[in-house]
Amino acid sequence: MQFSQALQFRADITIQLYADPHNPHLYLERGLLYEKLGFSDLAAADAYRALSLLESVVDPDGCEFHARRNVDSPEKGPSATTPGEDATNDSDDEDEDEDKDDGTTPITQEEYDVLVGPVYALLVRSLVRCGCYRDAFEFGVRGLGLLGDLARQTKEAAAAVTALSEQMEHIKQVYISRTDASNQLPWNAIDSSVLPAQGSARRVLYPWNQHEPDRRAPETLQLLNDRLVDVAPKCEVRAVALPALHDAIPDSSAEPGVSVQLGLFAKEDIAPDEIILRESSLLTATNRLHDDLCDACNAPLPELSAAEPPVGCEGGCADTVFCSQSCHDAAQRIYHGAICGFEDGLESIGKDIPDPKDKADYLYLLLLGRALAMSATQDVHALDLPEVKYIWGDFHDVDLDHEELGSGSSAEEDASTSLPFSFQLNILQPTRFLEEMGLDPYTTLPRYDTWVLNTLYAKFRGTASGRLSTWDGGPELCAVHPLWCLANHSCDPNVRWEWGGEITFRARTTAERPVWTRKDERKQCHVGGIAKDQEIVNHYCDVGLPVKKRREWACGALGGMCRCERCVWEAEE
Ligand SMILES: C[S@@+](CC[C@H](N)C(=O)[O-])C[C@H]1O[C@@H](n2cnc3c(N)ncnc32)[C@H](O)[C@@H]1O
């Protein structure tokens, strides 16, 4: 099968899924195709959907969503009925009536027996390929426990036991490499908390993503410049050639080593200390519980005794408080409408994070939750939200059309896998968000499929600003400001940024421009203010640090080691 043919099959099955969203056969089929296409992350997500639906066959009362398939969907598995036949001979009359009403039939125990093995095998194999060993191990243990007896009855289950055992052996080797454990160690002695939970996925523009604009097209620049008129009247967006900082195939339309992107430029001279940009955004997130910040803009709440006291949620969400009536009204219109009344369930997701190392990653999850709420409230696809659509995603430019099918390379071998990916943050918790919002994650697949979530994560990781807690220094707030984030980085920046209720850029004075230092040499290269046509350059790290430390800090946001003039000079390159 050619890559393009596999892509077409993926498109066909996806359309079938939209019409038959609780059918685990189709998720398994699409997951296997994703695996062939090299998207192990998406394969894992589909395998997990299939598994969650299959659980309803053996535990119908414990599951909210039940595995069913359209009666006229193609026959799957040995016991599946032909169209028109009654699939539920042993079910009661009431069930049969329901089937006729909505044209679906429950997945039978026989179908379950055939599907569950391959589903576990795909899930564990895909998580291993992504480097998510902890969850792979836990599903492996569950799968092997469940399939033991079944393996004597169906060839599918027997093959799955063999496949799972191979994966468990691989995971054991990862465990041994991180501990002093001996090769004789039995699986049940593995402490899964030692295994890494976070792996990575491809950070690419999915070939089927129809939402990404041509960011360099004149109409895009015009649209962004129209938006800048109020936010930063002296600034303009222009295309700019930057050094390409990661190894993936560089921009095919640019010189080697160059990445043509967008940047902010001064349209006229700007005086030192002048504020040149003020932007507010409701695409924000905080991990503080029961906060004293505005739910919408994250500004501090006014005192209760203030002339204009805080405003509570009109729907009665007790912990959702706004700094003003205008933030309240904007929140209802922009993100709170769809989640009003669901506060209790939603509050429990992603906030109380025991390990401080995970806090930043969970803030991105909360930002994702806000984007889902915006999408549902405004009835707009999340990738078409104005805060999201035009922002940078740092996608690797992989020539997918010439990829070999089913090469099965792992995340470690593939340079484009720079998107942090975990079962919790990319699969489980987003599903919980949707369920707590009162949405069915299967029927809402066209809006909230995993590739959509991964694209949102890629965009947020390339552009969000963060704020640290004043008492433990950990990250506690983050936001996407879609115009502010168009400014590129320099270790000799000409602006400072500050973020309260709104984010601002202020032109640096001469005294605020850093002094470049190497060995005994020191020099100041720039004066304050910004001349017409100069690029506005922000700072993604603390520019008071030495070059090595600055490069380490900014590496994540830049996608590689900084090569700005100051870094190159200070590192003597
Ligand atoms: C927040 S965005 C900045 C705006 C972006 N250029 C755009 O087109 O929207 C961050 C990305 O810009 C690029 N970038 C910013 N400063 C850079 C620099 N000094 N050198 C190379 N790339 C830079 C990196 O690709 C980084 O991931």
UniProtKB/TrEMBL annotation:
Compositional bias of kind Acidic residues: 87-101
Residue span of region Disordered: 65-109
Domain SET, first and last residues per copy: 233-541
GO cellular component labels: nucleus
Organism (species): Penicillium alfredii
Amino acid composition bias (Basic and acidic residues), ranges on this chain: 65-75
Protein name in UniProt: Tetratricopeptide-like helical
